[in-house]
Amino acid sequence: MTILDLGVPSVPGTSDTAADRPSDARLVDRYGRVATDLRVSLTDRCNLRCTYCMPAEGLEWMPTEQALTDDEVVRLVRIAVEHLGVQEIRFTGGEPLLRRGLEDIVAATAALTPKPDMSVTTNGLGLTKRARRLADAGLDRVNVSLDTLRPERFAEITRRDRLGDVLDGLAAARDAGLGPIKINTVLMPGLNDDEAPDLLGWALAEGFELRIIEQMPLDAGHSWQRDRMITAEQILASLQTRFSLRPDPAERGGAPAERFLVDGWERPGGGPARVGVIASVTRPFCGTCDRTRLTADGQVRTCLFARSENDLRSLLRGGGTDAEIAAAWRVAMWGKKPGHGIDDPGFLQPDRPMSAIGG
Question: What is the mean pLDDT of the chain?
């Protein structure tokens, strides 16, 4: 797959050196993309053990002293918003609701000017207790990961019997006004690949937006196999056994989800209901990617599949100024590759699994 296949325009006259970077305060790269969406991982820990993410015994967690403090997270987020033009913040994990200071981080981010759009991607456990507090702190919405509606399958996939708690958390998030609520689902062959129409029907009835995600090579065991992945084509074929779908005419921009209108259904409050498919593997959207990522230990990642990182924590703790940190972040993003390279013969998975990178 070439750069043109990914839809990535090259910028004439540029090279791989930071010296050739234009004098643009934003997070630009040499292919004309601008990162305005920041994904912030707050922890690598999780209270589920999803089979496609980590082993039953969990992983070796990051030492506490390596993780950014709440104040350090807030400072880096502030630099991203005030100095680098970031407009959207999503807090992720591991499981971000395991972060005790989450409400304080959200409140501090909400106080920034301009206020960024803020969301959390969570497994939903803990929302019953914290959804209202997060909304009061300024959080806009939540994305909840849920792969099945069947208790026995949920226990098999997550190795925890907690489906009821997730559904209660979704109800609490809706009551707190944290919407639109999006449901993130991964389909796996022989496990839950027959459940797409049921999940969509449930999401439509509840007023949620379902987004089905192709399984990506980000598991801790590096056992992902492309021929064992449910593709976007298969996902859409399954949904269309029960629903009539048509492409959403709205501009997609840098959104990872290819969205479809569901004929005969409306969203709460009016307007057509939608379902999304995130096909990172078979329909890559690298050419419009607008994301930059910050790990829980303060490393900038230019791509979910990047095999290198740029250290901001050392600069932060070494007395670096806001301007110096912003400059280092710009240089990191200037080095972003044109695409994730999954189809390249030499592709290697990142050393870190998804739980340590952040979604």
Answer: 89
